[in-house]
Fold each of these.
Amino acid sequence: MSAAIIVLEGLEKRYGSIRALEGLTLELPPGPTGLLGPNGAGKSTLIKLLLGQLEPSGGRARIAGFDPTQRGQRLALRRRVGYMPESDCLIPRMNGVEIVTALGRLTGMNARDAITRAHEVLDYVGLEEARYRGLDEYSTGMKQRLKLAQALVHDPELLLLDEPTNGLDPKGRKHMLELVHDLGRAQGKSLLLCSHLLPDVERTCERVVMIDKGRIRSEGSIEELTRSEGNWVEVEVDGDLAAFQRRLGAEGFELEAIGPQRLRVLMLEPDGDRLFELAGSCGTILSELTIERSSLEDVFLEALSAGNARLQPGSSLSSPEDTEIGRSGRNGAGLEPGAPGEKP
Amino acid sequence: MKAETHLEVYRRFQGELRDDPLRFWPLTATGLRTALKQRRALLVLYLPALIVTVILCFVVYIKFTAMDALQGKKLDFEEQLVRGMVLAQAEQMLSVVNIILQFSKGMGSFALLAVTWFASGLFCEDKKAGAHQLYFARPITRLDYFLGKFLIASFFALCAMLVPLLAVCIVASVTSPEWSFLKQEWDVFLRVIAFSLLWTIVTCSLVLLASSLASRRSFALLGVFGFVMLSVPVAGLLGDFVDHDFYALALLADLDALAQHVFGKLAPDAKLAAGPAWTAVTAFLLFSWTVIGLRLRRLEVVA
């Protein structure tokens, strides 16, 4: 594993008596990472701390090897980080090229580089025809893409994307996710994607950090997290199904028939070789084998429940459905990859 | 329509990101470019200033050419006596320093109007639009941000103040016989620059203070004009009935007194002495910069 791009050591942030972040300790390797959490979980506070806009109340953070609390390092750090804020944040009376160029120059580019680069990134995000239009003529999707373009203008190694699909229609959302996916996977950018939409994270990120009430609830690669619960293996059997069932039963596996020739087998570790071996020993063949993964939503809801249980021992658990993610998940937006999950 | 051959590929930036000590300059350049798009406002606010400047330049030109003509004539004793009296009177009335002093007071109003119009939204519009979030994610400090905005405001103040005053000085130098104005009263140039800078710093600080406190540009505009309009009668009443030093509560009265002080024309029995005026202006600047600093700190954090 290459050196961590973000390191948090007991990072804390308090606003008076309110604890926004409580002792976050984390090491994130380079690559696309999702930061999942309901509203008020502390995601934005964490981003501000990473950018050095806030002073931590305790602990420390290092981003790309820089300490954001040190002035000199903070400025150097901001040259290597691109930030796409959640809210509308564009400069009045300017067009797309002017905004991106101006922000490129503020990052330290000379005038010629800045304007060339502005055109390149506007092309990349698909705003080539709208670059000279005033911002009041931009749709929400165009504004989001413009915000992504300004974050990319100086070609940062780390992108902090705060709810990039907020307010987008399905087409705009698809386009934005494609861009994020391309940046994270094909272009090899490290990115921290803050979102309350699970499918966005699932589609674009390799790792996920789940945060709620200022604490990390779960963290790891999406594959590991979803597999950890997904020990059900679905198989299709050619041959004597009953013999195979008996054989599995004798070996102590929990079984569930789900079709004429299909079974679900619960395994501690999803081991396909073992199943093929057992099938062969009773004269059957496995024509299909699928390891079922639990969805990221299940993992998240479980992490939230576990966190709540730890926080409030003895009291009734606050339902994960009460959280925005819980709601979006139950409503479908969190479950279906194509769901827009729009905010009004 | 997009060409089929077009590929939205991501390209790496091959250039260099410099750590420029003038980090605020791109902010200033961008702000100026944006502000200068308001052509109608520029015309309304600067055309009268331009007309007044041209008229005064002409007055200065007339003064020197007329005096030159009078001095050149051969006259008898009585005529010389009359000429001497006329010249002395004209010298007093048309003293370039006096003209500049009066002109600077008049242009100060234009400058205040222009700065208020163009700079009152510098902080609050950023805040309202959320643009500060983009700025404070860049390698700039709060001081850079302040300087960038301050220079935008200063540009409009100096265009309405320093440029016309220097134009009058230059015309006086060129039209005076044998560059006598430049040779004898060269210090007027320095006084003009000093007073213009003082006026600029004070008015820009006032407008940026209002902008940092207001949530909308219109509120900042109202705040500036309200403060200027209300402080004059309040300071006048307190100055008349309590103590003359209270005249210093009015920022315009302070600047008026300081103008006379800088140009060496402050009468010893003036209502407001230079000392209290300097004290009030210094206190105001410290106060406004402190408040702006705190507001910008909050702006960065709220980003």
Note: The interface with chain A takes residues 2, 6, 8-13, 15-20, 23, 26-27, 29-30, 33-34, 37, 125-126, 129-141, 300-301, 303 of chain B (CB under 8 Å).
Amino acid sequence: MTDEAPESASVDGPPATVRQEPWEVFRQEKEGDPMTHGGSVMAPDAELAMHYARELYGRRQESSRLWVVRRADIGVLEDPDLLQPPLDRSFKKPGGYVMRDKLADARARTGATKKVASDR
Amino acid sequence: MTDPLALDPVLPPSERSRLAHNDEALSHGERYAAFEAHVTGGGKVEAGDWMPDEYRTGVLRFVEMHANSELMGVLPEREWILRAPTLRRKLALTAKVQDEVGHAQLLYRVAEDLGKPREHMLDDLLAGKTKFHNVFHYPTRTWGDVGIIAWLVDAAAIVAQQALRDSSYAPYARTMRKICWEESVHIMHGRDVVLTLVNGTPAQSELAQEALDRWWGPLMQMHGPRTPRDKDRDLHWRIKAKSSEELRQEFLSIYVPRLREIGLRIPDPDLRRDEATGVWSYAEPDWDELRTVVTNHGPMSQERLAFRRLNRDQSAWVRHAVLGVPIAA
Amino acid sequence: MTTTRLGLAAAFPPDTLHALEGLLGAMADDELVLGYWDSEWTGIAPMLEEDVAMSSLAQDEIGHARALYALLGELRDEDPDHLAYDRDVADLRHARLLDHPRTDWAFSIARRWLYDEADAVRLEALAGSAFSPLAELVGKIRREEVYHRLHATAWLRRLADADGEPRERLLAAWRTLLPDAATVFTPLDGEQRLVAAGVIAATNGELETRWRQDIGGTCRELGLAVPGPAADPMHGRTTHGEAVAWLWGEATMVRRLDPEATW
């Protein structure tokens, strides 16, 4: 996505006959951790992609698990209308429940002066 | 009860929280202005975002030179892999050079995702159309060089790379974080080699000092000449965050004390630190030498490019067989 | 740990111990020389990702050599680096299969495959060794070798199945390597004593037969000749060529400046 058509062939991408594509590598640092994105490798097929993922993201014993996926197989969602829709959604988050004033009123009625230990 | 509409009313299309520069409904000028505001305000750019040509070209040139440097940087150290004097040193040096190849892979991937195929980048490197950093155009003469390079060249590089971890181009920034983590091991390896030499026999100590005498000039040139901040487009687009001089000062502040404390002499009688300001002054680096070297007229430039060309040609059949890369006519 | 290992070794009569040292030295030299040849690919392999892979394989081999020299060093009370490096090239005891230089990608892959498959048979015969430190080390090495054999086989298939230049180069490599392929199983002095003592489960002759059976299927499937007995089997570990002489000069160049120094 550029502001004008590329001038040279070098930004058109590799020739159609080149049989390699990017594979995304997800890694788990240690047992129980979430899988996080590490990076990508170029490979002609799943077998070599797995070898290369191990080399680039696991040769130092830094990962306990790897997922290797063709980039072309990954669906991407980045539409802000779906992910950041504009109407109020504060009722879905802790910040949407501000009770400071109501608590103050209730405590004033009961004469409680100290915070109860279980108050956060 | 809160009024859902009052809190955050539905906004017209141009004001929604979509990145404006990605909005195809806007004019080129509007998109450019939005992009510039986004980036100069600290916003990040991903591979699929709209970018002005100047930005895309600037990032690609920056990343490509970095990738080329990692690839060519392998060659000065590679010959010492065979010559390492202990099993552990051989393992450490092989692993270090392997990491540089790995860094080249990471960086060429970033550049590929901007649209330039790897084979084209290698073509341009070998044809002399794109550049690689000055330090990789010099010969390595002794085991002393191996230690000095691994310690100080990598240190100078990491000073630059740490400053790139917050680059506006997010794929590059993420790669820098991984690279910095890996480079920190190289510096320790290099420092260990140098320390072992200076603590050893007089002949070993001399290996380290003699290597430092030869490498200090190129090291001081490595971050480049001072350029005014307002003329530096890479700074403007936040591709990088620090100027050449800031990086050089940072390098000197950390590493001059570490060199001196182990008894190594720095071959610059003008090198001194202003106690009040903390600023280092030094003999002016030879910028003519830098220009000569990075335009591939350095002592080893042509030989190393030829070596790369030879190996690439000799292994072309493998890429052709496995990947379908056309063999050059 | 040294005392325990020496104590364990003391359970063997001197002749058996001598044969054990010979076995460890041969294995260590095999791994060392192969590791050196394959480390040459670092920085110049056909593809960047493959460059990183081959470098890891080479480092693993050097790592195995290092562990084997360390074990040998404990038996002989000598420093492992001294054992490895402070020798003339004529004193190296690697199999002649590993004497050849790296040559091209097809050659390196073919040689790795032939060696790794032979080494696998040897390691299996050591997995239950009566010399427990060796059994323990072999257990670890075998786990690392899983990856090596996957990689070698993957590439052997790719080259064998690709028509034209890749297969031709593979066949040319195969022709050069075949007379030396079985040298990994060159009989070692005193190996009968090692079998009798339970250090190794079979003689080299028996292992060579097993190796040929193991690889026969893949060779036939890929249209590659099954290796026969080694040419000049009695000198399978004692004749070395110019390539290794050059390599050894490089490998010892810095160390020879001062072998007594700490590097």
Note: Chain B is about 65% helix and 0% strand.
